[in-house]
């Protein structure tokens, strides 16, 4: 049984190149189970309650702190359940949509998706693969103006997902584009 997490981050719905590309990739994966997460529906930014709660042991959290982490716990559980993560995103102003960065902030949690060790941070979401498709609106992937693809590869690796393929909306890999 394979489980796929399908994440879309574009603010556009109709005629969204990244949504069309990610849907095509999901269909090609033939996963047994697909978990769908549309970030355009909203992901909250971190606040003090959330931040304090992440450093508070679960058994000592207030109801307000537990509520502040509820969505984060759900997002992390989706990642933990998935074998493959497909992310479809647009590139806005040479980087990620704010909602995708908010998702990253929600899932990058010390002791949950990564751990600090004597050798440095260690990702805890190992054995997964990610396929990211980015509609750039004309900014070449891998160029000096692309601040999205390297960051996504880095942050996914930081949480342990090191098998990462970055594609443009036509399906060319970053390596093919750079060649």
From TrEMBL:
Domain Flavodoxin-like fold, first and last residues per copy: 3-171
Enzyme class: oxidoreductase
Documented EC number(s): 1.6.5.-, 1.7.1.17
GO molecular function: electron transfer activity; FMN binding; oxidoreductase activity, acting on NAD(P)H as acceptor; oxidoreductase activity, acting on NAD(P)H, quinone or similar compound as acceptor
Binding note for cofactor: Binds 1 FMN per subunit.
Keyword Flavoprotein: yes
Catalytic activity: 2 a quinone + NADH + H(+) = 2 a 1,4-benzosemiquinone + NAD(+); N,N-dimethyl-1,4-phenylenediamine + anthranilate + 2 NAD(+) = 2-(4-dimethylaminophenyl)diazenylbenzoate + 2 NADH + 2 H(+)
Keyword set, alphabetical order: Flavoprotein, FMN, NAD, Oxidoreductase
Short name of any one Pfam family annotated for the protein: Flavodoxin_2
Amino acids binding FMN: 10, 16-18, 91-94
Function in brief: Quinone reductase that provides resistance to thiol-specific stress caused by electrophilic quinones.
UniProt record similarity statement: Belongs to the azoreductase type 1 family.
Name assigned to this protein: FMN dependent NADH:quinone oxidoreductase
Organism: Shimia aestuarii
């Amino acid at each position: 049984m394979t489980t796929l997490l399908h994440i879309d981050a574009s603010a556009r719905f109709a005629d969204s190149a990244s949504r069309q590309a990610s849907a095509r990739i999901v269909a090609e994966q033939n996963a047994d189970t697909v978990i769908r997460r549309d970030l355009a529906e909203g992901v909250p930014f971190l606040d003090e309650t959330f931040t304090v709660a992440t450093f508070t042991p679960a058994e000592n959290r207030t109801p307000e702190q537990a509520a502040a982490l509820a969505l984060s716990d759900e997002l992390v559980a989706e990642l933990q359940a998935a074998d493959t993560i497909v992310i479809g995103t647009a590139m806005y102003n040479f980087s990620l949509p704010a909602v995708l960065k908010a998702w990253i902030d929600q899932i990058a949690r010390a002791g949950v998706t990564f751990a600090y060790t004597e050798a440095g941070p260690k990702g805890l979401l190992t054995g997964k693969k990610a396929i990211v498709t980015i509609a750039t609106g004309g900014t070449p992937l891998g160029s000096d103006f692309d601040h999205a693809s390297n960051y996504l590869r880095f942050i996914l690796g930081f949480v342990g997902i090191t098998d990462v393929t970055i594609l443009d909306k036509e399906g060319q890999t970053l390596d093919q584009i750079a060649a």
